[in-house]
Amino acid sequence: MEELHKNLEEMTVSERKEYYEALREKCFNLEHKQLDIGQGIIKKVYPLLRNYKIEIEGEENVPKYRNVLFVANHSNSHDAFTAYETFSLLGRNGSEMVGSDCLVPATRKIFDISDATLLDRYSKEECQNAASIMAHKLLNGKNGWIYGESTWNLHPTLPMHNIKNGAVKISLISEVPVVPVIVEYVENEGIIKSESKLINRCIIRFGKPMYFNYTDSLPVQSKRITDEMTRMRKELWKELGIKRDSLDDIDKLEYLNHTYIKKFKALGFTYDSEKEEKFLLYLNGEPRENEYTLNEEGIFVPGITKKDSKIRKLFK
Hints:
By secondary structure, this protein is of the alpha/beta class. It contains nine helices and nine strands. The longest helix has 23 residues.
């Protein structure tokens, strides 16, 4: 729906209120039907495939008697399945927003029949429609799950990339709070040979619900989410003894190996680093980087490790 993307910053507060009220009615009455039988398959089968435990923390922060929009960080291919496992563990019905452009055909089919809100991130129209559909589902009582960073965060030290404005906008349309979620995959140390050996536990920590208003700008309110999720993840790192204050804290070879495994050994997903970086939101002249690699001189620098890279030889 094109109405989702009008320039709100030029409106008065009363105009924004009227705008959201009209949009809310349109989204509520949207014609949308989708199968959800695949959710049951994911919830039963995926726990048998993963080799790590899932631990829920902060469930008391999730409002008991209303639906919410979960906004999670995005780390790897497991996230899409973890979201539905989380819904199951919480006893909630929900839909997650998934970029269809990075799915192989079989995986896309599974999520299409799992009530996932699919979108091709290269299509502005599909992104607009997906926001409307997610708002529609929330207005009709379901829970939502989105990845505000829009792509995997593979940076060695940055806890969070910037959260895009869509989360706040969907929250305002549907009148449900945002619950920030940190999904932390604790990785095994050392050089890993297969994706199944990468993770030893997954901690899912819920923050306190966040509410938004018509007065503040979308970027200002989106930054509130980014800041809170950054704080939450740093706090969790501290508790786990994970030190990522600077590049000096990073085991370079281990980082390169684990990043390679995530990108090229993921089941059911494809990952193109150059294309994925374009989906990140950069503000105030921030450097456009999401990965580090070794250059020709063997120096750890911002850059992309490719599948045919000589770096693979270092993992043997």
